[in-house]
Write a structure and sequence with these properties.
alpha/beta, four-stranded parallel beta sheet, 48% helix, globular
Length: 361
Amino acid sequence: MRRGFATTAMGNSNSAGPTGVVLLNMGGPSTLPEVYDFLFRLFADKDLIPLGPFQENIAKFIAYRRTPKIREHYSEIGGGSPIRKWSELQGSQMCKILDRISPETAPHKPYVAFRYAAPLTEETVLQMKGDNIKRAVAFTQYPQYSHSTTGSSLNELARVCQRLDPESDIKWSIIDRWPTHSGLIKAFADRIKTRLLEYDEKVRNDVIILFSAHSLPLSVVNQGDSYPTEVAATVHAVMSELNFSNPYKLVWQSKVGPSKWLGPQTTDMVGKLVGKGKTDIILVPIAFTSDHIETLHELDIELIGETENAPGLKRAESLNDHPIFIEALADLVANHLKRGDLSSKQFEIDASEHARDFFLK
């Protein structure tokens, strides 16, 4: 059964109590002392990086070895990740709009549940229990679904709820993907248009737009992961919104280890283009909705800052608190609640058996 959330859990605002809206994301260490724990949780996640039967021990070793370098990276972007700040701001502003446009499910209370950093899923569910939340929407902040990201977060939420809420006092539904939502597309297009205005009008339409998304191992892709298809759908929708005004490509970043991943890599494509004299390039982080280390360090410092002879290499600002984006978040939740769906149809074939049994029971 996929329907029934609205009719069984919604009711009216006086009898049903507040609606919890939980923004799911991987998170990031807000301070430097949190870096090791963040890395350990990340490498210990079998949904993200399967490392075999000794995963926890391997994760401890990798986290120990990588912590000094990653701490240095976070220190270079201000001493920690801003993703919690942005997530809490997005959730708060979204719920203010929701209270206005969806009074039948008001009041709406925002929460953040990160997979690898505070506030962790367990902390958030405990807070929701303390707040007497009875109905909630798990809202992924990855617009494009992957088993490694949204799938991992929902698996963890299911595990935590079965342990901390065995009576299922909180009734859940999920927004598991939204790669072509009109508000998302318009917000991306607006960020690109704003950056394009910084180029001389004579060359503006020749600026190359590189949409950069976090890569995935081909071993994951070949199992049927929806992520590459949905990222491509987002890119095409944004370019359609821009009337295909510029040349563009989809590229992939953040490859780790020796195995084969989705390509071409963002750094390789930038180097190739600059080598051909094409130096007017805008990088668009198309799978990220707020700034974190992959935008602020990997793109801004490591790529743009270290690429020589390319003064026209720029990055479109992340969505962060863009008004169109905040309105899109509210619109997604409001329409989800109005429809009463437990999930998208696609979730039924993408989700793990564990997540399907918990969320679609």
